[in-house]
């Protein structure tokens, strides 16, 4: 018999599976609100002008494609650190941060998880309830038991902060806590700065290890504002992990550009930690690809391209905000119940409170695709489809 005779079909990825179903949808008015991608008002994934300019220069220079260092280039890693902590950061000056270029935010989480498994083999990982659908599988895949901490409050469509604090207070020392720096996926419900202060204090008091997932820097309030949680962790003196993704902020999804940063206690620790993380990378994929990282480094290090990128990022942020406001107004005009919370939620996603049955009705009756949990991607709305979507939501709520 075949080696694979007994292999079972794995379940489809819930979100990528939704894309396949959407592509096969016959309704000409169809709208895909299931994906986690930013689209412009024209319904297309933008190629940023700053990225185009950096790519053009790179193409003209025709650099050779040798192997990169295992951890990526200093130009890229340094630029990532400055973006997260600011170029005048004391933490950076003290040599307390180790950064490695990784394959997107997912790759950064995976390298961090594999390294943590060697550092803390008996720890448990805690993710928010709910969280990005890959967090659990990723940390379980690295060998950790994965548990949840209270996060989303369906009644207020905000954060159940009392529940979150109680969960933190009950975690065993050295537990790993995965936190979303901003633009929480899937709910859109973020912590306030005052709440972050309490989280940092609880993590310090309980001797927990924070792993901050930063996939949307610049999508909520601004580059610096969205790093507020990182600033608090930096000031706390704690050691912690950060995964960064530039998939959204540079619209470079397929180039797989991200980074893992580990904050240690000293320059000397950083050198030893880096040597160990390099072993994890070397035995996984050896070293990262060249193009995406080189483009991001070029944009971030040229004052002109950087300004261009900040303006374009601001444009994406403003468009998402405008779609939130417009959706709320359109729903009101359709006579739907109060959706004001959509203006409070931040980033690409919104938990709408729609039930699985209502989401299914939107698909069947309108060809509008959303995740069964009621999550919609606000960045997939545009001036042409928003009226239709609001009508559909109002109709399935009747
Ligand atoms: N973390 C979160 C919270 C995300 O939403 C995503 C992707 N949408 C990622 C990590 C992964 O990012 P990437 O696509 O760069 O791997």
The neighbouring-strand order within the major sheet is 2-10-9-8-7-3-4
Helix share, percent: 40-55%
Distance between the termini: 55 Å
Which kinds of small molecule does this entry bind, naming each only once? Answer: 4'-deoxy-4'-aminopyridoxal-5'-phosphate
Strand count, sense and barrel status of the largest sheet are: 7 strands, mixed
- CA radius of gyration is 21 Å
Structural class: alpha/beta
Mean pLDDT: 97
SS summary, helix count = 15
Strand content: 5-15%
Order of helices and strands: HEHHHEHEHEEEHEHEHEEHHHHEHEEH
Low-confidence stretches: none
Shape: globular
Organism: Sulfurisoma sediminicola
Subunit structure: Homodimer.
InterPro entries: Aminotransferase_I/II_large, Asp_trans, NHTrfase_class1_PyrdxlP-BS, PyrdxlP-dep_Trfase, PyrdxlP-dep_Trfase_major, PyrdxlP-dep_Trfase_small
EC number: 2.6.1.-
Walk me through what this model shows:
- The structure is a single chain.
- The protein has 398 residues and is of the alpha/beta class.
- Helices cover 46% and strands 14% of the residues.
- A seven-stranded mixed beta sheet has the order 2-10-9-8-7-3-4. A two-stranded parallel sheet has the order 1-12. A two-stranded antiparallel sheet has the order 5-6.
- Strand 5 (152-153) and strand 6 (158-159) form a beta hairpin.
- Helix 5 (104-119) packs parallel to helix 6 (133-141).
- It is globular.
- The mean pLDDT is 97.
- The structure holds 4'-deoxy-4'-aminopyridoxal-5'-phosphate.
- 4'-deoxy-4'-aminopyridoxal-5'-phosphate (PMP) is lined by residues 36, 104-106, 132, 180, 185, 213, 215, 245, 247, 258.
């Amino acid at each position: 018999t075949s080696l694979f005779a007994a292999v079972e079909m794995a379940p489809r990825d819930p979100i990528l599976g939704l894309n396949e179903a959407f592509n096969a949808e016959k309704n000409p008015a169809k709208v895909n609100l299931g994906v986690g991608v930013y689209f412009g008002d024209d319904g297309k994934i933008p190629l940023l002008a700053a990225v185009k300019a950096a790519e053009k220069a790179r193409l003209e220079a025709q650099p050779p494609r040798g192997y990169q260092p295992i951890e990526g280039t200093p130009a890229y890693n340094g630029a990532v650190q400055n973006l997260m902590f600011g170029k005048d950061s004391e933490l950076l000056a003290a040599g307390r941060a180790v950064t490695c270029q990784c394959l997107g935010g997912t790759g950064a989480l995976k390298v961090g998880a594999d390294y943590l498994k060697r550092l803390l083999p008996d720890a448990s990982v805690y993710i928010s309830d709910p969280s990005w659908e890959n967090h659990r599988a990723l940390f379980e895949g690295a060998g950790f038991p994965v548990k949840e901490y209270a996060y989303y409050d369906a009644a207020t469509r905000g954060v159940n902060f009392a529940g979150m604090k109680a969960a933190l207070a009950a975690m065993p020392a050295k537990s790993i806590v995965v936190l979303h720096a901003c633009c929480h996926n899937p709910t859109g419900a973020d912590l306030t700065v005052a709440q972050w202060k309490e989280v940092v204090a609880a993590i310090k008091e309980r001797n927990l290890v924070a792993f901050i997932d930063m996939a949307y820097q610049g999508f909520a309030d601004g580059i610096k504002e969205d790093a507020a949680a990182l600033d608090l962790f930096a000031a706390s003196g704690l050691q912690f992990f950060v995964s960064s993704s530039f998939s959204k902020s540079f619209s470079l999804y397929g180039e797989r550009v991200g980074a893992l940063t580990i904050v240690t206690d000293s320059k000397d620790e950083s050198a030893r930690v880096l040597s160990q993380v390099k072993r994890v990378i070397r035995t996984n994929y050896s070293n990262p690809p060249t193009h995406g990282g080189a483009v991001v480094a070029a944009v971030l290090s040229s004052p002109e391209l950087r300004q261009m990128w900040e303006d374009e990022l601001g444009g994406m942020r403003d468009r998402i905000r405008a779609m939130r406001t417009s959706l709320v107004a359109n729903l009101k005009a359709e006579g739907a119940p109060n959706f004001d919370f959509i203006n409070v939620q931040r980033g690409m996603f919104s938990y709408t409170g729609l039930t699985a049955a209502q989401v299914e009705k939107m698909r069947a009756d309108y060809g509008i695709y959303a995740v069964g949990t009621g999550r919609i991607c606000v960045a997939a709305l545009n001036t042409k489809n928003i009226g239709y979507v609001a009508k559909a939501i109002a109709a399935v709520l009747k």
